[in-house]
Write a structure and sequence with these properties.
Chain lengths: 326, 615
């Protein structure tokens, strides 16, 4: 029986079509890593392709993509307290603090579902762009990146929470994959896109990876190119330092750092490793996740603010991120 | 008809040949079901009957075992695998599983072995009509009509079959809260087709053969266990295969030339949401293969046989993910020498091929037997093997690598067959066969995840070794025959480059056992069949969390035979998974509990009456 009081929950996707997705628990103070806490607490596997996890109060909300569900757990014991099932291609959950939350879903035309965590029901649905992924809240608005999913997109949908309707669609770079916010700003990591001709012999269109900064007040944008055409890498992870003024992102050479005002070029790589997941905590430490394959366990590498390796541990299959419970 | 090369040079290989009674009993099943119920080799079943299945011979992968139809490999040119659920045993006169067949015999690229599906004529036959009709659990309906007509100069065979099942069985979903009893949904399949064979025997000197095999299978692919939404994937497979051959026999030699054309089409679709009007995946694959073989064999005295031949063929594939129409060609030259004396036999075979972008080394095999006594025969084999990457490995966009290296290695087998009863005992037999093997596979290709897409890499270095053992016997008492058989396999198939764990390849059990006891009389037969599949890992790092525990299956068959002279019939009942074992062949893929099949077989043959007249 677990009695967690904090720590970091690591999201391990697992191997597709095998129900090997899991959550690992890491205690930064002791360095203790516990694998597959859901299985240990509930006596059954969590599901297939665990995509993400969010925290609201003492409840964890885990999005299990290929099991078409979200699973709620008591964070102290990690015992399941319910689930919402039958949702096609769920991706990320944003708690709203009032016992409800928003869930992005869809690999082509996407949707945002409003879910009541007490009744475990979908209470509202809103169509957004293609392949919605992460979403953040600023005041009474929610910003959703439309990554394109299995097709293309280059927008961020803005939802008014009072009316639960789209009030703006902001053009950003191609294939926006991740979003963070602080103060009056939001930052969107855009992976960039490569398009081939019909017989796949020529690249007919290629755009750079970039970070787009959005002003909350008027939705104006500024962008900075962070990748290189032809490097064959499309970044997907963005994290905000605890000072709110530093961004970390993954690129071909590893993990890079850039000032949030996007006026100076990125520096790095601060970590020379290609990562599958990237997170920061409120102490300024950086957590990276390595997936050597989809049929073997991955690794967590934890770095301090100066880029020095502090700890490492084995986690589950294909770790893609983490969430801290303070 | 002349013997094929794998029979001529068979010493040192392990062969499991199904008798006519077993083939009749499983005539309307699929080959994956037949193998999984009868052999200790792991058969990967991705679901109930009709679902994708493949076999892992001697710790190799499913694309390293070849399935050959009348001498021509039917493995997919795009993936290199053969879906055993697409093969209906009733279309063949002979089915055998042969582990350790050297690659030098046919150039199939086989590492683990070869499954042979063969049609051969019986020129004594005049008319033979067989009807199989079966009905079973979960909406299972199976039927096969087979006819054989001819005389001593010509034989024409024709089979037509149909199989369908709803597969809507209940299973305990251990991946859901409370492990509820759940009914499998979206798992229906339909499979129908025909085969035709023509054999001409002209004065014993000229033999002509030709065959056609056409079939279509449509399958709903269910969600995995634990899923909370109904599956939406669907696959249609259709194949048209045709072959023809001519043999000219001389006094002590023969020349044979054979050609085959295979036209195959796969259409796979899936949807994000069942209500979507469009497909999220809509994949169409078309391939056309042409194969030609010419061989000459000469019998030099009583102890020496030699042969040589040429192969030539090609494949063309039209697949959107290849970007353009893809064409590859393959040529080869082979030779063999057999020296056979009463006490010992030795075979040497060699093959050299040239394949688009590849220049394989000469494949060689040296195998033979030594008869120590009337009851003890020792055997050994040494060979190298070589497998050309599949079209997907080379051309899939994105990820495919035209320069990826082929898989290669070598293998050694050694063993013996021992009769445990004196040969003077005529009404009983008891024997054992033990074979130890060791095999390396270097540059084993595996698709691994890159930053944005998967790609194939020469990722593994595998050392497979083990022991295959069999104990079998029979006892005839009056009109009753008692048969028994037990097979035990130990297989250690280890990836030597693994970074975590002990490296046992996923889904290869360390231990596997099958056993069978049959009672047969003139009018009645009964058989109990049991199998134990040992613990398996489902991940490359052998994580205990995702291992699959051993499972035990028991099956019963009972039947009554009636009729005499030219008309005979049989009604049988099969009870599979008698004790309702809940198991997973592949992790998170539901398998049925206890289920039954009732089958009626009617056979009309005038061969028996004609033979009686001759007697």
């Amino acid at each position: 029986m677990f009695h967690f009081t904090g720590g970091v929950f690591i999201v391990n996707e697992g191997k597709f079509n095998s129900n090997t997705g899991s959550i690992s628990h890491y205690d930064p103070s002791s360095g203790k890593m516990i694998g597959d806490v859901f299985m240990q607490a509930n006596g059954r596997p969590l599901g297939d392709v665990v995509q993400s996890m969010a925290i609201t109060g003492d409840t964890g909300v885990i999005v299990v993509n290929n099991s078409q569900k979200i699973e709620m757990v008591n964070l102290r014991t990690f015992v399941s307290i319910g689930s919402v099932t039958g949702i096609d291609y769920p991706r990320h959950f944003l708690p709203l603090g009032d016992g409800t939350g928003l869930l992005t879903a869809g690999s082509f035309g996407g949707s945002v579902y409003r879910i009541d965590l007490k009744t475990l029901r979908v209470t509202d649905t809103l169509a957004v762009g293609n392949g919605p992924e992460t979403l953040v809240r600023m005041n009474n608005r929610v910003y959703v990146v439309n990554s394109g999913g299995w097709t293309i997109d280059s927008t961020v949908s803005v939802i008014d929470l009072d009316t639960f309707s789209i009030i703006d669609t902001i053009p950003v770079g191609d294939q926006p994959a991740d979003i963070v916010c602080a103060g009056n700003d939001l930052w969107v990591l855009c992976s960039g896109r490569v398009l081939y001709n019909d017989d796949w012999t020529q690249v007919i269109y290629e755009s750079d990876a970039q970070i787009t900064r959005i002003s909350f007040s008027d939705h104006t944008t500024t962008s900075m190119i962070i990748g290189q055409k032809g490097d064959g890498y499309n970044p997907r992870r963005l994290a905000l330092g605890n000072d709110g003024s530093t961004l970390y992102f993954d690129e071909a050479g590893g993990v890079y750092r850039v000032e949030a005002d996007l006026t100076t070029a990125p520096e790095g790589p601060v970590i020379r490793k290609r990562v599958y997941g990237l997170e920061t905590d409120r102490y300024g430490e950086l957590y990276t996740f390595i997936a050597p394959g989809f049929d073997m366990n991955g690794y967590m590498l934890r770095y301090n603010m100066n880029g020095m390796l502090v700890d490492s541990a084995t986690v589950g299959i294909a770790p893609n991120g983490a969430v801290s419970w303070d | 008809m002349v013997s094929t090369r794998h029979i001529l040079y068979h010493e040192g290989t392990v062969s499991w040949k199904y008798d006519s009674a077993t083939l009749s009993r499983f005539a309307t099943a699929d080959l994956g079901q037949l193998l999984s119920l009868t052999l200790p080799y792991p058969v990967m079943l991705y679901g109930p009957q009709g679902a994708l299945s493949g076999i892992l011979l001697r710790g190799s992968a499913s694309n390293q075992t070849t399935v050959a139809w009348n001498g021509f490999p039917i493995n997919s040119a795009t993936t290199g695998t053969t879906d055993l659920s697409l093969i209906t045993p009733g279309l063949s006169d002979g089915v055998s599983v042969n582990a350790g067949v050297p690659g030098s015999l046919f150039g199939y690229g086989n590492v683990g072995g070869v499954i042979f599906l063969e049609n051969h004529p019986d020129f004594i036959n005049r008319l033979n009509v067989t009807v199989h009709a079966g009905m079973g659990s979960f909406g299972t309906r199976q039927a096969l009509l087979g006819t054989k007509l001819g005389n001593e100069a010509i034989q024409a065979h024709f089979n037509v079959f149909s199989r369908t099942s709803d597969n809507d069985f209940y299973f305990r979903d251990v991946y859901k809260p409370g492990s509820p009893l759940v009914q499998l949904d979206h798992s229906r399949f339909r499979h129908a087709g025909f085969s035709q064979g023509t054999f001409l025997n002209l004065k014993g000197e000229h033999q002509v053969e030709a065959g056609i095999w056409y079939q279509v299978k449509e399958m709903e692919i269910p969600s995995i266990m634990g899923a909370t939404a109904t599956g939406t994937a669907f696959q249609k497979d259709s194949v048209f295969r045709m072959y023809a051959g001519y043999t000219r026999r001389y006094n002590r030699s023969f020349f044979r030339i054979r050609s085959a054309v295979f036209n195959e089409y796969i259409h796979y679709t899936d949807k994000d949401d069942p209500l979507d009007a469009f497909y999220s995946i809509d994949s169409r694959i078309r391939t056309l293969q042409l194969m030609n073989i010419a061989e000459y064999r000469v019998y030099l005295g009583d102890h020496l046989v030699a042969d040589a031949g040429l192969t030539a063929g090609g494949v063309t594939a039209r697949i959107q993910s290849y970007g353009q129409r893809t064409v590859e060609t393959k040529y080869g030259v082979f030779t063999g020498l057999r020296v056979a004396y009463p006490r010992w036999t030795t075979n040497l075979t060699m093959l050299k091929e040239w394949v688009t972008h590849y220049d394989p080394p000469v494949q060689t095999a040296l195998n033979g037997t030594y008869k120590w006594s009337d009851r003890l025969v020792m055997k050994a084999k040494l060979s190298n093997h070589y497998r050309i990457p599949s079209l997907n490995d080379k051309y899939w966009i994105p990820g495919g690598n035209p320069d990826i290296r082929p898989e290669k290695g070598w293998s050694i087998d050694a063993g013996f067959s021992l009769g445990l009863l004196p040969s003077r005992v005529s009404h009983a037999s008891l024997g054992m066969d033990i074979t130890a093997f060791t095999s390396t596979i270097i540059d084993w290709i595996q698709w691994i995840p890159g930053t944005d897409y998967w790609y194939p890499e020469n990722y593994l270095r595998v050392w497979a070794r083990g022991i295959e053992s069999q104990l079998s016997g029979h006892l005839q008492t009056g009109r009753m025959k008692l048969e028994g058989e037990m097979n035990y396999f130990y297989t250690r198939s280890q990836n030597r480059k693994v970074q975590q764990g002990d490296g046992q390849l996923p889904y290869v059990p360390f231990h596997a056992l099958t056993s069978k006891i049959s009672v047969i009389t003139d009018r009645f037969f009964f058989a109990w069949q049991g199998s134990v599949t040992g613990k398996r890992f489902s991940t490359a790092d052998n994580s205990e969390s995702y291992s699959l525990q051993p499972y035990y299956l028991h099956n019963l068959y009972a039947g009554w035979k009636a009729g005499k002279n030219s008309l005979a019939g049989e009604i049988s009942v099969q009870v599979n998974n008698l004790f309702n074992e809940q198991y997973e062949s592949i992790r998170a893929h539901a398998m049925p509990g206890t289920h039954i099949l009732i089958q009626v077989v009617m056979n009309f043959s005038n061969t028996r009456s004609e033979r009686k007249q001759q007697n």
